[in-house]
Amino acid sequence: MRYQCVIFDLDGTILDTLGDLKNAVNHALTKRGYAARSLEEVRAFVGNGVKNLIERAVPQGTAAEEIPEILADFKAYYNEHLNVATHPYAGIPELLRDLRAAGIKVGVNSNKYDAAVQLLMQAHFPGLYDKALGESAGIPRKPSPAGVENLLQSLRVGKEDAVYIGDSGVDIETARNAGLNMIWVSWGFRRPEEMQPVPERRADSVEDLRRALLG
Length: 215
What we know:
GO terms for molecular function: phosphoglycolate phosphatase activity. The protein is of the alpha/beta class. The chain has helices at 18-30, 39-45, 50-57, 67-81, 92-101, 114-124, 146-155, 169-178, 206-214, and strands spanning 5-8, 15-16, 87-88, 105-113, 131-135, 162-166, 181-185, 202-203.
């Protein structure tokens, strides 16, 4: 099927943001004398927003009242260093360019806060997308379908003509809640063996995804 609109997740789908997330987590942890986390540990913790990331990263038994302070330190550091190691996955800018050239609209729906989404999209994909949305007062976090619905309305596309691309179970839930077809990508933050149930449609490379979207 040739879609009129493709909606992408951001972290782990089109941008590899893991290095900067790890550095921000470890800044907040080591500031309090807690052990740093490895890249693989942070990969496993990512998902469902930064509050959940911090709750998973702190040592077991950390007092609940410490969490907001650690989260604030994480956010302050990340705000200043969110685009140091972050980079697009190989082949993604070219794919976005080809989708736009084919007249297919490109949207991005992220659980990252909206200001960071706008900064990263402009830094890495200028002119290669139609609209990007992150979490804000008016757009709750996924798996709420609100972001997808906002994008479809703004881009004037029906859900039957759109497809959602993401790397996590949250993305699968989001697509389901929004009534969209979905393609899971295996190069992101979730390994195939971690996906339960196993996604019906998957792409193991950007070239796989290109064939699914452009033929």
